[in-house]
Amino acid sequence: MAAGCGLFAGYPISPATEISEVLSRRLFGVGGIFVQGADELDSLAIVIGASCAGKKAMTATSGNGISLMQENIGYAAMTETPCVIVDVQRAGPGTGIATKSMQGDIYQVRYGSNSDYSIIALAPDSPQEMFDLTVEAFNLSEQYRVPTFILADELVGHMMEKVEIPPAEKIHVLNRKKPDVPPDKFVPFRAASDTDVPAMPSFGDGYALPISSFARNESGSPSTSMQVQHQLVTRLWNKVEKKADEIARIETEYLEDADVAVLSYGVPARSVHRAVQDARREGVKVGYVRLITIWPFPDRKIKEIAEGVKTILVAEMNMGKVVREVQRAAEGAAKVSLLSKPGVEAHTPLEVANALKGLGA
Questions:
Q1: Left (φ > 0), alpha (ψ -120 to 50) or beta: where does 220 sit?
Q2: Can you say how many angstroms the Cα of residue 112 is from the centroid of all Cα atoms in its chain?
Q3: Which of 33, 42, 160, 255 has the fewest CB atoms in 10 Å of its CB?
């Protein structure tokens, strides 16, 4: 609501249902709309339609629901429709354990739909960041016209901590760029050269706004041209990936003299931070790295970190997903190891400390 969300559409699913429940009571009070969709695919379709009509819109689900939304995630990416999707990840695969945590959807949100496109995904590690990063997710989605994900998990979703909500005037809220030309001069998908992002009018503004997931030229007309396809897909990719250094955020500590860096994201980062602090007090030269942005992946920043340490230990609640991205970014610069835990319980500081000892730290 602080980000300006005007519509929520969702379908009940553990462990994300509390978001729907609260918004069903609160959203009307700020002039918003709550809709329970027939299912997850329907819910995201409602969100996409509302966004095209000018509303900031969102949904919330878990991994099973993300699976069902994939067709419309690709549709939103192709039509460049801003929307926010909260994924409160649960243990899987399949139905898994509805009330337990995992970080299993890292690749699903990035590569789940067909072909090439790019999205943005943020990983909160606290209730405070659930607030802060949701505002940021709306801003990024509006700025880049892409589906933007909050990659939370059951543990952070059900965590109780103090959350400070700033006064409204101190919350930075960004809106999509509207056309600055009259309707007869407007070309729907002609992007600004510096951003690769076209201006977006709303339905009813008087502009032609073709919304189709067919490949299209700048006017929005379907095309089978190789040149049109190349330009379109390259732009959909580049508008996020070429801006990765601007979008991607990481948090680091103690890297100045570190031999080993422990990298994590989401809930495991809390245990990693404690373990690193304890190790530093014992004189161990270890550093702390937390990914706040998962996608686009911060390749350059990880490469720089890898060039300053001997080893990167990646702690994540799955069988190894982000570790592969770290290995790719750090190739030739540092050894990369995995501390895996496939869900239900997060890593403990002791487990991280023992892993560091196993590396000789």
A1: left
A2: 13
A3: 160
Instruction: Tell me, yes or no, whether 154 and 259 share the same domain.
Output: no
Strand order in the sheet with 260-264: 250-253, 286-291, 260-264, 311-316, 335-340
Number of domains in the chain: 2
Q: What is the pLDDT along the chain (361 residues), one digit of tens a residue?
A: 999 999 999 999 999 999 999 999 999 999 999 999 999 999 999 999 999 999 999 999 999 999 999 999 999 999 999 999 999 999 999 999 999 999 999 999 999 999 999 999 999 999 999 999 999 999 999 999 999 999 999 999 999 999 999 999 999 999 999 999 999 999 999 998 889 999 999 999 999 999 999 999 999 999 999 999 999 999 999 999 999 999 999 999 999 999 999 999 999 999 999 999 999 999 999 999 999 999 999 999 999 999 999 999 999 999 999 999 999 999 999 999 999 999 999 999 999 999 999 987 7
Domain finish residue from 116, 143, 170: 170
DSSP string, 256-289: TT-SEEEEE-STHHHHHHHHHHHHHHTT--EEEE
Report d(CA 182, CA 207) in Å as an integer: 8
Give me the DSSP letters along 317-348: SSSSSHHHHHHHHHTTTSEEEEEE--SBSPPP
182 assigned to some structural domain: no
Q: CA–CA separation, 26 vs 7, rounded Å? A: 11
Task: Tell me, yes or no, whether 155 lies in a domain.
Answer: yes
C-alpha torsion sign, points 114, 46, 15, 292:
positive
> Exposed (0-12), middle (13-18) or buried (19+): which is 3, by Cβ within 10 Å?
buried
What predicted TM-score, i.e. pTM, was given to this entire model? 0.97
For residue 32, give the nearest of 75, 3, 67 by alpha carbon: 3
Closest CA to 339 of 260, 251, 258, 278: 260
In angstroms, the CA 338 to CA 324 distance is 9
Say if strands 5-10 and 33-36 run parallel, antiparallel, or are unpaired: parallel
